[in-house]
Amino acid sequence: MSVLQRFEKRLEGLVEGAFAKVFKGVVHPVEILNAMQREAEAHKAILAGGRTLVPNRYVIDLSPYDHSRLAPYAAALAQELAQSQAEFIGEQAWTVYGDVIVEIERGDGLDTGMFRVTAEVFTGADPGGGYAEPAYDAPPPAYQGYDQQGYDQGGYGPPPTGTRNVRLVSADGRTYPVAIGSTVIGRGDQANLRLPDVGISRRHARLDYDGGQVVLTDLGSTNGTMVNGQRISAVALNPGDMIQIGTTTLTFRVDG
């Protein structure tokens, strides 16, 4: 039985068929799971050792009307979506940083029956309002404290020693150190690395550094993120890579 078939069977037993009534004639949960699987496929990044990293956090925006109808069942649906996505990722032998997280939110501006899925590599704790499901056959969670086995939540054993000095260097010579964990690049207040460039989104892109490798992920920015002239969704960076966001060019540098 496929992941989608198992998902549909579990939905049948939830709240005595309420999902069928809620989604009759509008968006259906299976469509959402299909879209989540496509997002994982589209945002694959190859890590050292040949591992394939995919997003672990999925934000589902529903139209205001659909969101209001779904509200009583949102938590149960988020749990089922997270479990099924974790199973799918495990079957593909892909890697994630931490648990698979699903959040269901109101998407203002979406027409009834329409939805939007946003996927990202998330290296913090569950931000709340969603459901987190441990990924099957995936490494332990991402750098943010320690798990029950005492391993750091970066996923590959104790915290790395001899961590490299990683930084971004702008065209005018300014240097921006990259710390272990997540660094959001943008022009808004929520960004860790703020750049005064009107072509940059408030939360434009994110760097995830595990002490060995840095993965750059576009966060659904308006103008996109380029690496060496190619538009990317997520990519593992190599020393000397040129990152273009808005009108700003940053060079990825590594020492050590």
Strand element count: 17
Low-confidence stretches: 15-19, 135-162
Rounded to the nearest angstrom, the distance between the terminal CA atoms is: 48 Å
Radius of gyration: 19 Å
Strand content: 25-35%
Overall helicity: 10-25%
The number of helical elements comes to: 5
SS content category: alpha+beta
Write down the overall mean pLDDT.
78
* Elements, N to C (H/E): HHHEEEHHEEEEEEEEEEEEEE
| Spatial arrangement of strands, main beta sheet | 8-7-17-16-13-14
Shape: globular
The largest β sheet comes out as: 6 strands, antiparallel
Task: Summarize the structure in short.
This protein has 256 residues and is α+β, with helices and mostly antiparallel strands. The chain is 21% helix and 29% strand. It is built from five helices and 17 strands.
Structure report:
- By secondary structure, the chain is of the alpha+beta class.
- It is built from five helices and 17 strands.
- A six-stranded antiparallel β-sheet has the order 8-7-17-16-13-14, with no helix packed on it.
- Strand 1 and strand 2 form a beta hairpin.
- The longest helix is centred in the N-terminal third of the chain and has 18 residues, at 74-91.
- The protein starts with a helix and ends with a strand.
- Residues 15-19 and 135-162 have low confidence and may be disordered.
